[in-house]
Structures are given as structure tokens and as C-alpha cells.
Amino acid sequence: MAPNDSVETNGGTRGTAVGRRKAARYIVPVAVAGVAAATIGLVPALASTGDPDLPEITAQQLIEKIAASDTQQFSGTVKISTDLGIPSLGGLAGSFAQGGSGGDKGDSGADPQKKMTELASGTHTLRVAADGPDKQRVSILDNAAEYSLIRNGDQVWAYDSSSNEAYHATEDGSGTKAEHSAPAPESVPTTPKALAEQVLKAAGPTTSVTVDGTARVAGRDAYKLLIKPRQSGSTIGSVTVAVDAKNGVPLKFTLLPSSGGKAVVDAGFTKVDFGKPAASSFTFTPPKGTKVTEADDAQAQRKTDGGKGPGMFPGAEGLGAGGLGAGDKGGKDTKVIGEGWNAIAEIRTPGGTGLPSKASGDVPAEAQQFLDALGNKVSGKFGSGTVFKTRLVNALMTDDGKVYVGAVTPDTLVKAANNAA
Fold first, then answer.
1. Which of 311, 326, 349 is the last residue of a domain?
2. What is the greatest pairwise CA distance in the chain?
3. 3-state secondary structure of 298
4. Can you tell me the distance from the alpha carbon of 347 to that of 353, in angstroms, rounded to the nearest whole number?
5. How many Cβ atoms from other residues are within 10 Å of residue 394's Cβ?
6. Which of 23, 45, 134, 258 is deepest in the core (most CB within 10 A)?
7. How far apart are the first and last CA of the chain?
């Protein structure tokens, strides 16, 4: 294989698509294609033995191909495997994401805020479809049950066949979601392109981008784009995106941890068709007997029950879905330390208190043993605290009530806390 070309990106790549129609097209912002000015060594990569024999292409050209892709119609099957090194999240994670307990009267078993968090662990098979900016569908297949999230124009429906519950929201006339509406399918990273978009938007001087040969994915020829941190200290080792050689659509996304072992996230099409999906894919009528929850009613009930509820992690509202970046300021109790792959959120917890402890008399000895088993005790200039680890995101909670969290190693978190002390 010929030497790979290398691309360094500049700060201009952090621009985001404006308006729902651009976002719904799953297109990487055109600003990503502006990395040519910082490109060093435009040496194309060649296909290795046994892989598709495709024309030579540079990383810069491949990024531009992704950005220029105007494919708005597709349907197919996606397999997503996620291994964060933690037990299955299921409804527990959904409760935290929703900001309340699972038993609230306003809750629905079909609420997307809860259901989609199940993709954060285990292996799942999804059926996906899109027809332009106003019609998308994502269905999670689980044995005999199916969960579907559907948008058709300004109407968003979610339906859980196992509980026979539905969740309904309406977008406002401007094309943006109403205050209490559910997330539309394109806002959930359930396709390789949506995942790749998040990574490429964050690309900057701390990132190496190369072409790493070719592959066959879902019966289609593809180039492999390899994205790696230039910094040390990140839990992310590399990201590989298989890009359709014909239309520039990412077909497979694989994130490997810097610690080694199997992928943390492996999402790819097993079957794909770029023709126009059937109109029936985007229509939904609740079956007879379905319990339907309106988004506005659910939000109003949560406010009645005390707002966000006890499940909201302190400061979590300051962390955007797109991840951390050098330009992000976070919420009023959150600030971002560092940049690129080593960005860390520093969160001040309400009241400035850390985890409850036996010494403070807040918890019995048995409960303290359980808390200790969840993390590792650390100390430094900042004082002392506990590190909670996964294969991708780690968090340090200090005893004086600060939380440091990011896709970085525990040592990097401790160093950040020491520097902030």
C-alpha cells in the first residue's frame, strides 16, 4: 500500500449546518471540505490485496466527497454494537436522560429520550429510511418487538409495540422543534453518516486524517477514512469510516479505544438501497387500544412533579449532544478545559458537595462499600475524589463537589483537576 496522505484541519471546520433542511440531509457541513489549505502531502492510498480496486483518492478529496454528497433517499438495515464496558443501560439510562424517575405519571414507555439510550450498550439491529428533509424513520428491532421513531413533515411519532404505547410531538411552523417536542430521527446518531458527521465537525489541528485502503460494505465498494487523535491522553484510539465510492455516503463507522481490544462503537449497513422508499414507511396511525402521550402533556406533568427530577446528573444540561469542543462554553456551572480530543468538562455540583460518605454519616457502611466498588479513589493537589471509568468516557468527582468528565484517561482527568486547583 502506498503511503497514506495526511490532513490537518483548522478551526474553520467547526461550523454547523444552518436550518432543519440542511441538518435533515445528513450532510457534513461544507466547512469540513475547507481543510485543503492545511493539507500536507497529498499522497493517495491504494487498495490492498483482496479489497475493491478503486481509483486513487486523497483524504482531502474523500472528505470533500462526503461533504458534497446530496443523497437524501435511502433505506436499509444497520447493525450497531456498543461496548462501553458497563452493564446494559436500558430504562435506567433513559431515566437519567429524561431527568426524572421512570414512574412519573407524565412518562411514556415510547418516549424517544428514554428508548434511544438503549443504543448505548449491546448489539441492536435497526431499519432506517429517509426521503428528503421531512421524512425519516428509525426502527429498533428486538426479538418479536419493534420500536419506531417516525417523522413525516411536522409530525413526529414514536411507537413501542411491546407496551403498545405511542408518543406524539409536533414541530412548529418555522421548521424547528417546538419547545416540548420529541427529537426527530435525523437528530439521533443511528446511521454511520450521522456518527461520522459528529467526528468530522470536531476535526481540527489535533486530528490526523488519512485514507486507509478500501472495503466492501453491504455489497458496495467503499474507501476507508482513518481519523486519529494527534494528542496523547484520549481514550479514543482511532475512528474508521467506510465511505461509498460512488455517492460519498458513509456506510460503516468503527471507533477503537486507545486501550486496545474490540470496538467501542461499530455501526454499519448490512443492507442498503439508495432508491426512493415507499411512502408508507413514513405514515403512522396508532393501533386500537394504544396509550398515546402528547409531548406537551408529558412536559407539563414533569414540571408539576418538580421540574427535571432527581435523575438529572448535576450540570448535564451544559453538555451538548454534539460533544465537547474548544469553543464550547457549557452551562453556567460548566466550563471546558483543553481542546480537541482532550477536551474536559469541569462541572460544579449544586452546594459544592461530592459523593456521600460514611465519614459524613450520610450513608451506612454497606452502601459505602458499594460506592467504593463503582470507582477508584484518587488524590492530588485538588484534594481527593473518585474516578468512574468506562472504555470511552471517564469522570472524576472530587470530594469538594467538582466533576471532570471527558473521553480521556483517568490520569488526564487528575492532571486537569490538579491544574485547576
1. 311
2. 68
3. helix
4. 12
5. 22
6. 45
7. 49
Going by the DSSP 8-state scheme, the letter that residue 96 receives in this structure is: H
CA dihedral 185, 159, 102, 104 (to 10 degrees): 110
Neighbouring-strand partners of residue 273: 75
What pLDDT does residue 196 have? 87
Least confident window among 24-28, 43-47, 344-348, 355-359: 24-28
Which burial class, exposed, middle or buried, applies to 143 when counting CB atoms under 10 A from its CB (0-12, 13-18, 19+)? exposed
**Helix 192-201 with 59-68: angle, nearest 10 deg:** 120
Residues in the chain: 421
Residue 376 β-bridge partners: 387
Rounded Cα–Cα distance for residues 346 and 349 (Å): 10
Give CA–CA dist 288/416, Å, rounded. Answer: 55
**Model confidence pLDDT, tens digit, residues 389-420:** 989 999 999 988 899 999 999 999 999 999 99
Cβ neighbours around 236 below 10 Å, total: 20
Q: Which DSSP symbol is given to 23?
A: H
Q: Which residue in 404, 388, 411 sits closest to 84, CA to CA?
A: 388
Q: Domain check: are 320 and 290 in the same one?
A: no
Residue type, 400: D
Residues with Cβ within 8 Å of 253's Cβ and at least 6 positions away in sequence, in order, are 192, 195, 196, 239, 240, 241, 242, 265, 266, 267, 268
Domain span at residue 47?
A: 1-311
**Burial category of 372 from C-beta neighbours within 10 Å (exposed 0-12, middle 13-18, buried 19 and up):** middle
Range with lowest mean pLDDT among 28-32, 98-102, 193-197: 28-32
Where b means 16+ CB within 10 Å and e means fewer, 41-51 reads: eebbbbbeeeb
Question: Which of the two residues, 226 and 355, has the higher pLDDT score?
Answer: 226
DSSP sequence for 47-86: PPTTS-----B-HHHHHHHHHH----EEEEEEEEEE--SS
Residue whose cell numbers read 481540527: 204
**pTM of the full structure:** 0.75
Which of the listed residues 258, 293, 311 is the one where a domain comes to its end? Answer: 311
CATH code (residue 340): 3.30.310
334 and 244 within one domain = no
Give me the residues paired with residue 24 across strands.
Answer: none
- d(C-alpha 228, C-alpha 115), whole Å: 31
189 and 283 together in one domain? yes
- CA dist 222 and 242 (Å) reads 6
| Domain co-membership, 125 together with 38 | yes
Per-residue pLDDT at 118: 81
